[in-house]
Amino acid sequence: MANQCKYYKVVRQVSYDSGVTWVNIGETRKGDLYEYDSAECGAVTQYRWVDVTGQYTCDGTTKHQKTKKQYSTDGTTWQDVSPAEYGKGNVIEYYSEDCGGGEYSDQYLTFVALEGVRFKFWSNVDNVDGVNRVSYSLDGGSNWVSLPNNTYTPMVQSGQKIMWKGTFRHELFPNDGNAHNYMNNFGCTGRYKVEGNIMSLLYGDDFIGKTSLADTYRVFDNLFDGWFPDSGSLVNAENLILPATTLGESCYAAMFWNCTSLTTAPALPATTLAPYCYETMFNGTSISTMPDLPATTLVKGCYDNMFYNCTSLTTVYALPSTALEENCYDNMFAKCTSLATVPSNMLPATTLKKFCYFNMFQGCTSLRNAPDLPATTLVKGCYQVMFDGCSSLNYVKCLATDISATVCTSEWLKNVSSTGTFVKNSSMNDWTRGENGIPTNWTVQNA
Q1: Nearest-CA neighbor of 184 among 221, 213, 153?
Q2: 186 touches 223 (CB < 8 A)
Q3: Cα(220)–Cα(109) distance, rounded to whole angstroms?
Q4: Which of 380, 376, 388 minimizes the C-alpha distance to 333?
Q5: pLDDT band at 175 (very low <50, low <70, confident <90, very high)
Q6: Assign residue 411 a region: left if phi > 0, alpha if psi is -120 to 50, beta otherwise?
Q7: What is the pLDDT at residue 256?
């Protein structure tokens, strides 16, 4: 604006000696422009911060939108200040890989909202002494808020993260045989994915490097269980870190039970198992691929019902253990109706335990081939109802030579395909025909 411009002041002078000397005569006028938008002439300078398109800045491991400072004296025209000044705007991502984060094992247990979601945490442990043992952070861990039992957090908007830590020490989970005395469960109102290290629920800020759940009991039992009211919709757990290599009894039991929207599972690195450690862990989920299970020595019920009713499961891997235990694979893949093929070397054990494969593939209606069964001596219930209801099954290779154990093959090939091929040990002549032996109309071959 013109009245906010600063000009040089010009004074009129006169000379009476042919320009040798000059005298002011008191007249002045506006000279050349000295300064636009001069504060001395009434100009008001405004400042603002604007996003720098396509650029970001880091504050620790938090990724922010990069901003720059601009000014205006008329509120309409804006220019960058000189020298340039830059700042940080809205959070783009907490614990960003671009800012040195991204190692999920070093990250607190974190939920990423996929829509506006509120979360709560319920535990019987809190009901024991009234202590709030879970805290959350909405600003990347700068500030933490204690969350009362069964109380909702503020709304977490789509794309934002909420971090969790707790003080659930081992002594809070005694093995008293009561499955639900110490149950813990997250609830929510919408869709989200989970990432980061689950140990922050046990060890608070001191979770990094913790790899043992020994002496715990049902410590993460039902943690994301979709069966409960307000359990919400967990859709992705591929970046959830379950770092324990030594497990506790039933530690992950029913962890994702009935999370029907869950399509990806976390890695399971444990090599030292505990009774029923993975019992019903993924029961009823929509995962399509099982995680690797590297343990070579099993314990009672360790994989009991682990993938039961996972109707989207199509890819499974070899189970490397040759040291089995009672009921170790009980119902493991039962009702996995999309499972069509399994590796021939999936079950390498030659020494069996009672009911070790009981009902393992029952109701897998798409399954066409059984894994090779190399054991020669069967034990009580080892193959009982193993393939019952596998209506597409038309190939079995079983090298057993001693099938005298009680109910070892009871109804094991009930309701399978009406025609197929059975490969047997060449020295074995004790097989009978029917659902308890070799299906009636199948072709028999010697191995």
Answers
A1: 221
A2: yes
A3: 13
A4: 388
A5: low
A6: left
A7: 95
Residue pointed to by tokens 């034990």: 379
- Give residue 443's identity as a one-letter amino acid code: T
**pTM of full prediction above 0.85:** no
Domain spans, the chain: 2-41, 46-98, 106-241, 288-447
Q: 323 pairs with which residues across the strands? A: 297
- CA 101 – CA 376 distance, rounded (Å): 52
- Which tokens belong to 143? 């500030």
**The two structure tokens encoding residue 144:** 């933490």
Q: What local confidence, expressed as pLDDT, does residue 101 receive?
A: 65
Distance from the Cα of residue 211 to its chain's centroid: 18
Does residue 2 have a pLDDT over 50? no
For residue 215 the two structure tokens come to 């002496």
**What's the confidence (pLDDT) of residue 130?**
56
Highest mean pLDDT among 29-38, 66-75, 144-153, 326-335: 326-335
192 contacts 112 by C-beta, under 8 angstroms: yes
| Sign of the C-alpha dihedral computed for residues 244, 248, 249 and 255 taken in this order | negative
361 CB burial (10 A radius; 0-12, 13-18, 19+):
buried
pLDDT band at 10 (very low <50, low <70, confident <90, very high): confident
- Backbone phi and psi for residue 211, each to the nearest 5 degrees, phi listed first: -135, 15
